[in-house]
Amino acid sequence: MMILFFALVGNLSGLMYLDVVAVNATTFGAWVLTDAPGWEAGYHDLCWLSQFVSEMFPQPRGAARAPNRARERATHERANDRGIERGRTSAREADAMGGHSINDAYEKLEKIGQGTYGKVYKARERANGRLVALKKTRLEMEEEGVPSTALREVSLLQMLSESPYIVRLLRVEHVEEDGKAMLYLVFEFLDQDLKQYMDMTGRGPTNPLPTSVVQNYMYQLCLGCAHLHKHGVMHRDLKPQNMLVDKAKNLLKIADLGLGRAFSVPVKSYTHEIVTLWYRAPEVLLGGSHYSTPVDMWSVGCMFAEMARKQPLFPGDSELQQLLHIFKLLGTPSEQTWPGVSNLRDWHEFPQWKPQDLSKVIPQLDEHGIDLLSKLLVYDPAKRIHATDALEHPYFDSLDKSQFEQIEREFEIEFAQEKENRMAQ
Fold first, then answer.
1. Annotated catalytic, 237?
2. Considering 45, 237, 256, 296, which one is annotated as catalytic?
3. Tens of pLDDT along 158-182?
């Protein structure tokens, strides 16, 4: 059985942290996931997470598991995919899932993608007909217990779902399929991402997005990032494919927090194998392992330019080529422009380029837009603009911000109703 403990564990630089400790009751193996500043806003949802884990992770049904489950799992995966195509799952397949089947509550319609750490299905909720996205994650219930990635994403999403600019985690379903524990994260369903939206309106600079759309979506992107960063979370994989578009409400939502990490003070050492190459910050490309929310703001800058000109700004196909694309446009960094750059692991002597005029490269942006972009693409992470500061930039002065107040009011009502329904279940 898997148990979550929530504990306040000290005060660092005046900031309190909430640690989520996952313990396997059989082996007492444990790890700690740290949710950084701003934990108060998600405290009640985190308590709910503790409740759902205690309910959703019972001891596996039946006797000891049979050997060679890998072959059986592959067989079941193929059978399940056939069941999706038929729009149903046979009784025998449902029995193999161990009693409670995900198909009891949801009708899987189609596989729509592969998230960072799991398959994603479009499904219909049988109780009310609502379309949802099911993210399937296998839980290897071994000595280490529930995968830290799954726990991290669930805890982060529960804390962050109180914003209209983050894709909502509606509930979590734990089932057994072929004797293996599976976790289904149930998200609100949005059928289009930002990349698809841009392609739909035509590719390339000859088919630009309206400047009002770029401005509006850019503001929402900054609102979403400000919400993440306020709660001590960096996304680490921001790209157009992870931005979902709600066309009916004209909303842009940040999705797929599979690489999200809570950060603390001092900034921890993290893996540098993050973010799709085109949107990867130079400190990560150069092998830096101590970084924080500025990596997200670099990605925001890359998406800003891409929305404006309908082309990726730095389309490299290797880490070296990616760096060369950046240096050719922004100039080769030095100790004067970026103190400490020469000490990064993968730094060496690069060709010396001078910075180009961004207004000539991205003529679709006005003077204020170019200024905001230049602040997002600053080499030195310590000097890169923060999301909250970006929201106050003159580029957004002409934007009617009352629309976002209305969006947030409607979302609060909807979110409160959803919580009431969840509590009643």
1. yes
2. 237
3. 888 889 999 998 888 888 877 777 7
